[in-house]
Amino acid sequence: MHIVIYQKENKRVPVKDFLSKIGKDDPDGAAKCLANIRRLKNYGYMLHKVLPKRAEYLGEGIYYLRDRGKAQCRIFYFFFDTYAVLAHGFVKKQDQAPPSEIKLARQEKTEFDREPAKHTWKGSLP
Question: Which of 13, 21, 66, 100 gives the lowest tally of CB atoms within 10 Å of its CB?
């Protein structure tokens, strides 16, 4: 499966920013996040079923990758056409994903669905 990275209208790239920050604070955690992104590329739509400890479906087309380094890192993603789109990441500090993070992921999905070319980052992750 092809992986696409969401870009905000102001050209900020939340997943890239998140991985950069995690990489400074917790290099092992960043490496685990990147390994999960590779798993998503390999398993695509089936990741949350094949490896339920690595991904979870939250409803309304929103999923997240999960991993633990020093912190519990989560990266939201969704599917568009034949692509998996990485939206944004956060460090989980409570049992459930905060509703505000899920709401943000839904908003990013709506923006991407409306104008995919405008919200596709042309760069690449390490």
Answer: 100
